[in-house]
Amino acid sequence: MTRETRVQASRRTILKGVAATAVALLPAPFAVGQTARIKLGLMLPYTGTYAALGKNIDEAVRLAVGEQGGKLGGREVEYVVLDDESEPAKGAENANKLVTRDKVDFLIGTVHSGVAMAMVKVATDNDTMLLIPNAGAGAATGAACAPNIFRTSFSNWQPGFAMGKVAAGRGRKRAVAVSWDYAAGHESVDGFKEAFTAGGGKLEKELFLPFPNVEFQPILTEIAALKPELVYVFFAGGGAVKFVKDYAAAGLKASVPLVGAGFLTDGTLEAQGEAAQGLETTLHYADGLDFAKDKAFRAAFRKATGRDADVYAVQGYDTGQLLVAGLAAVKGDVKARTDLVAAMERAEIDSPRGKFTLSKAHNPVQDMYLRKVQGLENKYVSVAVKALADPARGCKMA
Ligand code: PHB
């Protein structure tokens, strides 16, 4: 039974129980709108190359709400879960199920930018609150920005831009970029290219393969022939594991430095092993940050799940924290939309990544860290760019 059908089954059980009982005994919370449970619709990948990412986000959202006694603004919380399979073609239909059928108060998702943009459209059409706990699609806090759309993660541009700056600052001149051929890959490469070019470098070639393909051999052969000074990539999840291993196995690691947006090595190090050692990436999270909040979060996440936290867990947790802040301000009244949005806009999130605020376009303004793989850690090296804001191109609120 999927998690979604489990939720439905339990609802049926409740209804049967209610039917067998006198109507007068209907539990009061369900009769009074304001005290009914707040419904969170978690639309995430629970299968496929991004499955581990979705799982960590899911469990970290629940951790943050659990730390509030399972309540938001004084109201109990109910979760409705849906596996989006990182499948953009099913994105609108899946988001509509949560909004129209399940009537969720908040749509929360997702990992894949293509699916997230389908969610943005559904949220816009229905004026539903949407919180994006990962997908970096520029348009979500750019051309398609809206008061009801918030992101607690990053824009694809942010880590890419940071790495472009680092690489150019080191005097590198000739780079090649590799990624999947969809919004996240292109935008990440564009961010890198913008800063690398401004710093005097040249991105000589961009190589893309369809998502979620992992047939990297032709690309690795081409890199060997081009002999660039470095290779910048955006890959994540299962694809990142395979790319890092294939890159090392092709004998390229020693001759052409491989760098990337930090997703390349986040949540993947156990599977990548030796092949990942020494790799440098940029991201809004790192191991070895000296924040009390980070230490407490890591211990709590490990206790709750038995796993170590990664960037996806942090983003899920901060999605929960943003909900906590917004709903506390309106005492759980999700209909007080103007006040809810205003409270979320002014929230300062005490994140394990370091404190951050949201830009006018509702994207985190945050430090981008340079990290280096050492054992099973993406060790903090330095702040690559301080308080980096996405340019929010095309956003009318910005
Ligand atoms: C995205 O599709 O925006 C995406 C997916 C996985 C990541 C980061 C970004 O790790």
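^ P-hydroxybenzoic acid complex. The pocket of P-hydroxybenzoic acid is lined by residues 50, 111-113, 134-137, 156, 184, 236, 263 (CB under 6 Å). Residues 1-33 have pLDDT under 50 and may be disordered.
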